[in-house]
Design a protein that fits this description.
11 helices; 7-stranded mixed β-sheet; globular
């Protein structure tokens, strides 16, 4: 039985995605409020006899101006056992019914399913999905295809620290001795964070978010998000935003660091603070976020990003990619042409 999520059953839905191994903060109505430029809908599949939730699908909906057709974006896929294709099919059928209501021209999905699960990708293709950017190695997709992470594996702080490279352990310990102080801050510190983020973006050549976006993360995610700031001699020199989701994942979502005072190791101290939060919450995985699939190549511009994350131990994970299910091909083609043109103009 497919049930549409509404105010009456929202708490039940949130409990399910927070306890399920495939549940992520991107599936939550909290994150939907951060992405308020999109409309949000979610459906649940319930067992006909017990009434228990078997799986769910959350979709962000964006309308094409003038013609009013919609793009359905299922960020990070369905929340269900990954090899339960019967549940997948029933959730997909439910989305197709919802798509009719919104005149959707496409359903986009980028499941957090590792590349080794060939059956999942084959099932997507059998349902009519088409892979975008096959073989991509960098950041061509909406969400990173490659991420770096480590498993907590029930380790203590001392045991976890021993999995880091020796010089990383030393830098974490030296940072406070050199005068670095890491604090959990509120929105009052966002001016400093945004300023440092702009400095980081200019240095590393990426676009940055405005202050209001980070305000929405802290407001909407509540206790599931933290802003960490590193101070040296009373001045903010680095900051990060971490998001946790149940006991599944501690996610390093955003990071910024000044060009000054890098020799006092604020970035190492910040990572350690977020990892400690994950330990406190009994999280299973610490997610460092996206990296390039070619990151171990010293000539790759993202090599430094991988090298920094790699020093904390862990491993690279590759997901199966991003897929589109086209419902209205003329609208789909027009939208893609307009999007490409907009990128060229920028």
């Amino acid at each position: 039985m497919i049930v549409r999520v509404n105010d009456a059953n929202l708490a039940e839905y949130e409990d399910f995605i927070k306890s399920h191994p495939k549940g992520l903060f991107q599936h939550s109505s909290k994150w939907a409020k951060v992405k308020s430029a999109w409309k949000w809908e979610a459906i649940m599949l319930k067992d006909d006899e017990s009434g228990e939730i078997i799986g769910s699908a959350a979709v962000l909906i964006r309308f094409v101006p003038v013609i009013k057709n919609a793009l359905f974006y299922v960020c990070r896929g369905f929340v269900a056992d990954e090899n339960d294709f019967e549940t997948f099919d029933r959730l997909f059928d439910g989305l197709l019914e919802l798509a009719k209501e919104y005149k959707a021209y496409c359903i986009k999905i980028d499941p957090e399913i590792v590349i080794e699960n060939k059956a999942y990708k084959e099932h997507l293709i059998s349902k009519g999905f088409t892979e975008l950017n096959p073989g991509c190695m960098d950041f061509e997709n909406v969400q990173p295809r490659f991420v770096y992470c480590f498993d907590y594996n029930g380790l203590s702080e001392e045991e976890l620290m021993l999995t880091f490279k020796p010089d990383y352990r030393n830098r974490i310990r030296k940072a406070p001795k050199k005068g670095v102080e890491v604090k959990i801050m509120g929105k009052e510190a966002l001016d400093d964070f945004v300023s440092i983020m702009a400095e980081t973006g200019e240095r590393d050549n990426f676009s940055t978010r405005p202050k209001w976006y980070f305000e929405k993360i802290l407001d909407c995610m509540g206790e599931d998000a933290r802003l960490y700031m590193a101070y040296y001699e009373g001045k903010a020199i680095a900051g990060t935003i971490a998001i946790k989701w149940g006991e599944n994942v501690m996610k390093y979502q955003y990071g910024a660091s000044s060009n000054a005072h890098r020799n006092v190791y604020p970035n190492y101290a910040l990572q350690w603070a977020m990892m400690q939060w994950g330990l406190e919450c009994n999280c299973k995985v610490y997610d460092f976020g996206g990296i390039s699939g070619d990151c171990q190549n010293p000539d790759n511009p993202h090599y430094g990003l991988w090298r920094f994350k790699h020093g904390f131990g862990g491993y690279m994970k590759e997901f199966i990619g991003e897929f589109d299910y086209v419902i209205n091909k003329p609208v789909y083609n027009i939208y893609n042409i307009a999007t490409d043109l907009k990128k060229k103009i920028r």
